[in-house]
Amino acid sequence: MLLLLLLLLSPLVIFTERCHPDDKAAILKFKNSFSNGPQLLSGWTPDSDCCNRFECDETTNRVTDFSITNSDLAGTIPDAIGDLKYLKTLRLHKMPFLIGEIPKSITRLKYVTFFDISWTNVSGHIPSFLSELQSVMFIYLSFNNLTGPIPSSLSTLPNLSGLDLSRNRLTGSIPESFGQLVSPSLQGLSLSHNMLSGDIPKSIGDMIIYQIDLSRNNFSGDASMLFGASKSKSAIDISRNNFEFDFTNVSFMAETLNQLDISHNKIYGKIPSQILEASFLQFLNVSYNRLCGEIPSPWKLKYRSESFDNSSFIHNRCLCGSPLVQCK
Ligand SMILES: *[C@@H]1O[C@H](CO)[C@@H](O)[C@H](O)[C@H]1NC(C)=O
Ligand SMILES: *[C@@H]1O[C@H](CO)[C@@H](O)[C@H](O)[C@H]1NC(C)=O
Ligand SMILES: *[C@@H]1O[C@H](CO)[C@@H](O)[C@H](O)[C@H]1NC(C)=O
Ligand SMILES: *[C@@H]1O[C@H](CO)[C@@H](O)[C@H](O)[C@H]1NC(C)=O
Ligand SMILES: *[C@@H]1O[C@H](CO)[C@@H](O)[C@H](O)[C@H]1NC(C)=O
Ligand SMILES: *[C@@H]1O[C@H](CO)[C@@H](O)[C@H](O)[C@H]1NC(C)=O
Ligand SMILES: *[C@@H]1O[C@H](CO)[C@@H](O)[C@H](O)[C@H]1NC(C)=O
């Protein structure tokens, strides 16, 4: 009886394997390209169904999500990654021994919307061919060993919604083309902790960006275009740069602004009293600049029971009033 049952079931077991042979071949190539792949990925065998391990499309059974995190796989990103043609998510995250450049073969991932290679030791330039990933919405390349400039081609991505290039060793300035992004709005743009420099393009002020982080670079000149009462920004961090502009007449998006950090620059003038209308503000730091005059008050903060303490204002040229010394 048992034997009969097994006989009946065995063809069924073979029949129900979902993994597409092309995806299986790519995944096995991926595994074998790493010196320690066979050891660390020993469960990836020719007779295991890749759709048990990775997310596959319900109808086509093609692998749609290839995510590897916290892995000691040692070597470069194999070209075989481009054979997983139906990926929507590619995520290689926290892989300290992943080295070498981002391979050209990734341009075959025409459906990828979420592209994440972060916390690795991938190096070289950010390839301008990333702009061939026409469906991409999020590009996360933070915490790698990337050098060179930001490719201006990224501005042509029609659906780009988040770009995080923070914590690399990027140089050069923000491409002029970023002010004319094809994508209608960005939820987030982070370029922090690099070695970027120069003026930021004026046109970047016209973009709708919800969170912008340019901190810890060596940008200089004017950043006042990032501010404005009609611009939908909820978080602005330009701290630890060389920005030098008059703060007196900037205005804020009072309905959305909740974080503002301009500390450690050479920003001068006064803190505009219009900032008091930003009632959702939760974090403020204007310290270590060249600001002067009276700190506006009273704050009408909805999400904070107390207003900001003196560490938000210290080390300016001549700011006065609560929480610093009284104005003369
Ligand atoms: C890159 O490699 C260095 C040296 O092996 C290591 O200390 C560092 O943590 C690695 N970086 C990342 C982001 O894993
Ligand atoms: C961009 O997003 C829209 C809306 O989600 C979608 O219809 C369109 O196909 C996307 N474009 C590309 C190139 O993926
Ligand atoms: C980072 O990249 C540089 C070359 O750009 C290389 O010399 C260095 O070894 C890389 N660091 C790691 C930890 O891979
Ligand atoms: C930052 O840029 C200024 C010019 O604006 C230059 O003098 C300075 O050397 C740069 N600092 C670093 C650390 O690159
Ligand atoms: C700020 O605006 C006031 C009033 O419009 C104007 O008089 C002043 O010149 C402006 N200051 C700067 C530095 O633009
Ligand atoms: C900031 O406030 C703390 C106590 O709240 C005080 O000890 C310190 O002297 C103040 N610093 C300045 C620069 O006002
Ligand atoms: C503001 O930045 C300065 C300088 O980095 C720091 O000392 C201070 O603690 C910060 N204050 C707040 C409230 O973040």
Explain what you see:
By secondary structure, the protein is an alpha/beta fold. It has one domain (87-320): Ribonuclease Inhibitor (Leucine-rich repeat, LRR (right-handed beta-alpha superhelix), Alpha-Beta Horseshoe). The chain is 11% helix and 25% strand. The strands form five sheets. It has an eleven-stranded mixed sheet. A three-stranded parallel sheet has the order 7-9-11, with no helix packed on it. Strand 1 (55-56) and strand 2 (63-69) form a beta hairpin. The radius of gyration is 25 Å and the shape is elongated. The protein starts with a helix and ends in an 8-residue tail after the last strand. The mean pLDDT is 93. The chain binds 2-acetamido-2-deoxy-beta-D-glucopyranose (7 copies). The site of one 2-acetamido-2-deoxy-beta-D-glucopyranose (NAG) has 4 residues, from loops.
Give the topology, please.
Blueprint: H1 2-15, H2 21-33, H3 37-40, H4 50-53, E1 55-56, E2 63-69, E3 75-76, E4 89-95, E5 98-99, E6 114-120, E7 123-125, E8 138-140, E9 145-148, E10 162-164, E11 169-170, E12 185-190, E13 197-198, E14 208-213, E15 218-221, E16 235-237, E17 242-243, E18 259-261, E19 268-269, E20 283-285, E21 290-294, E22 318-320
Parallel strand pairs: 2-4, 3-5, 4-6, 6-8, 7-9, 8-10, 9-11, 10-12, 12-14, 13-15, 14-16, 15-17, 16-18, 18-20, 19-21, 21-22
Antiparallel strand pairs: 1-2
Bound molecules: 2-acetamido-2-deoxy-beta-D-glucopyranose (7 copies).
